[in-house]
Prior knowledge:
10-stranded mixed sheet, 17 strands, globular
Amino acid sequence: MFRLICLALLAGPVLAQVPARLLWSDEFDKPGLPDPAKWAYQTGGDGWGNRELQVYTEGRPENARVENGHLIITAQHEMWAGRDYTSARLVTAGRQSWTYGYFEVRAKLPCGRGTWPAIWMLGEGWHKGNWPAIGEIDIMEHVGHDRGRVHAAIHCTAFNHMKGTQKSATAAVPDACGAFHVYALDWTPARIEMLVDGRPYFRFENSGKGREEWPFDRPFYLLLNIAVGGTWGGQKGVDENAFPQSMVVDYVRVYDRKPE
């Protein structure tokens, strides 16, 4: 016994693992419009730089509502402000932003041809015309003409789709439209990693070469939306008979680091 005690003392104290801390969440447990203390809307129908067909609306339950414990974002085929489709683009801009952390969104995706749902992040100040320098983190994108395959990417000055240099990866999720899956971002000063159901499939390292390659050291906010058509989502046309189409979100959770 004495020998065991001495060995334990020589080994030093055992440090307890500090659990990850939940910083922010929305469990969508209050029916009605999305919580205005947590979510704002970005609105309009100017194509959003991608020749998209929808108008993003504000305060319409037909496009964004909380129901039965879920956030439901719906793209509708309807005439609105001179456009043939409506949808919603919810953001935490002006409410909450983060620098680093672990982000989880449990969601079920729409799959009609022409749909383009996304879970993503932008650096604060994107409206000042400084994309891609401001930085973009695409946690999950899906296009209806490529059903069951999700995409992750980052965009910055050095790496972006305008130059064809974006850093991206894909993962097969065959039942993405029929079942909930957890789409996650693990963001640290050293790297960005995207995961689906805990499985990493994209990784981007901080090269240390400066802001052109790593603008990801400043506050970013979350976005949830469904676009219709556009340069990617509409590559194989839009099936107008497939609408309405919804992205159903079970929860959004932000931790200070990846939970063990």
